[in-house]
């Protein structure tokens, strides 16, 4: 293009030449950006899409999206897999509030020689981005971490298999999640095998893990039904074989997502959450009609300003309602209460869950937050939010596992140790009136109802719920690493 442009310059005025040159530079720059834009994005950003997007020229789709730095999120992993990205103010926003690169000077004012030097520097930066992955080559590093994660997941599942008579209902939710999510992943791979970096051995490995998770669930359910019949009758529907086959593409947070100030302390008791889940199944106290959602439950389970398990249970509530086919009733409820669409509520919850996960990481992963941290990745990963997945976070998670046994240890949180917010604190009934004037008082321990999901200690001091959320989170890590490897393979 530059040679043709120079020939045209001989026949036009200096002014026209300058204009033509400026246009040509714009065109050249545009083509260069169009061709290489997917390269400039961080590998963490590349993890955004699923197999359907890959089959439709994913590099073109990816470059149309950005991942905004969430307001209030410090140390959020929104960039290169395994590296912590903290906003330094180097991003500008467009009219929609979405971060974009700082605008460059107009091409007509940029010297061509300087422009070429800038492009060379950009190319060098792109090469560095592509070759930098935790100080190792990207494909080899990711592949090694993938197989380490597969081995870790297998070891944890084998432990749960030996304990299938002793694990509780919540643990089987975790194994059903693994089974369902790996099943969805396998179907994606099988439908477009040419778009995935998955050989026959790896495919078989994934299938065996899905089958093992299913076998654990099937063997454990009769014991759960016998030992906790009321609990099983109430919400046992979520243990059905295909219930957790959620199929969401990888996506980004929008620029206008609301992130509220973090405040420690729980707002929901688990029996309240269970009662509201039962309304979806028609097994509640007030109605035997499925999807008959009460205003009381809807308001309780969709309030803003929650944190901790209360917040993850709000997301859990939406996921279960939609999976059980109650989406229309949920949309009607949100319209009645003047709320955003269910999809937007889901995004808002995950944005705030990510904010809290980043704070946990910033505090160097306190042991009593391990369980919550892994639950956060599992639940938001299932609905496509890849920002929870970094190699640093994964390595931390892998380090918490007992390698000899396969389970996860820790100090179980007893019911009398759970911190609840005072009745007038944010997220409580009275506190919602003060939602924009948050008190700085610490959470208060109050009298508790018994927690049916209290952590169960298994043999060798292993924790049932913590091991279950670990396998669910590891299953999500496998998905996003394979998506990342698929993007790296796009020519």
TrEMBL record:
Transmembrane intervals: none
GO cellular component labels: cytosol; membrane
Region named Disordered: 1-130
Ranges annotated as biased composition (Basic and acidic residues): 1-24, 32-62, 89-114
Biased composition regions of type Acidic residues, renumbered to the chain: 115-129
Highest taxon, organism lineage: Eukaryota
Protein name, entry field: Uncharacterized protein
């Amino acid at each position: 293009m530059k040679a043709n442009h120079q020939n045209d310059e001989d026949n036009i005025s200096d002014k026209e030449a300058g204009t033509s040159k400026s246009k040509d530079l714009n065109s050249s720059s545009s083509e260069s950006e169009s061709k290489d834009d997917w390269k400039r994005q961080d590998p963490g950003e590349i993890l955004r899409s699923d197999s359907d997007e890959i089959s439709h020229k994913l590099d073109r789709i990816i470059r149309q999206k950005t991942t905004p730095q969430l307001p209030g999120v410090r140390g959020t992993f929104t960039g290169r897999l395994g590296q912590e990205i903290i906003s330094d103010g180097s991003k500008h926003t467009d009219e929609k509030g979405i971060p974009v690169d700082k605008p460059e000077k107009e091409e007509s004012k940029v010297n061509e020689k300087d422009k070429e030097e800038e492009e060379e520097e950009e190319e060098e930066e792109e090469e560095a981005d592509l070759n930098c992955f935790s100080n190792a080559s990207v494909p080899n590093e990711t592949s090694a971490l993938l197989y380490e994660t597969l081995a870790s997941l297998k070891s944890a599942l084998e432990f749960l298999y030996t304990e299938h008579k002793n694990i509780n209902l919540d643990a089987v939710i975790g194994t059903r999640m693994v089974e369902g999510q790996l099943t969805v992943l396998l179907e994606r791979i099988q439908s477009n095998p040419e778009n995935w970096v998955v050989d026959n051995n790896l495919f078989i490995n994934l299938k065996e893990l899905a089958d093992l998770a299913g076998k654990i669930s099937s063997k454990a359910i009769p014991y759960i039904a016998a030992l906790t019949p009321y609990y099983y009758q109430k919400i046992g529907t979520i243990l059905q074989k295909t219930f957790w086959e959620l199929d969401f593409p990888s996506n980004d947070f929008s620029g206008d997502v609301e992130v509220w100030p973090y405040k420690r302390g729980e707002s929901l008791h688990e029996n309240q959450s269970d009662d509201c889940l039962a309304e979806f199944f028609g097994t509640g106290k007030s109605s035997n009609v499925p999807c008959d959602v009460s205003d009381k439950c809807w308001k309780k389970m969709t309030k803003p300003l929650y944190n901790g398990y209360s917040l993850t249970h709000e997301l859990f509530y939406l996921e279960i309602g939609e999976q059980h086919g109650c989406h229309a009733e949920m949309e009607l409820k949100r319209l009645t209460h003047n709320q955003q669409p269910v999809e937007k509520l889901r995004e808002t919850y995950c944005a705030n869950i990510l904010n809290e996960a980043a704070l946990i990481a910033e505090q160097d992963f306190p042991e009593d937050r391990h369980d919550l941290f892994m639950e956060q990745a599992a639940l938001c990963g299932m609905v496509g939010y890849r920002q929870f997945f970094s190699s640093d976070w994964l390595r931390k998670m892998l380090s918490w596992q007992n390698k000899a046994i396969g389970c996860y240890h820790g100090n179980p949180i007893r019911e009398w140790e759970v911190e609840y917010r005072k009745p007038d604190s944010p997220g409580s009934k009275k506190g919602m009136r003060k939602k924009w004037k948050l008190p700085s008082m610490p959470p208060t321990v109050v009298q508790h109802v018994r927690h049916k999901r209290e952590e169960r200690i298994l043999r060798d001091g292993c924790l049932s719920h913590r091991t279950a959320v670990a396998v669910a989170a590891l299953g999500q890590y496998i998905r996003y690493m394979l998506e990342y490897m698929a993007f790296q393979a796009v020519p």
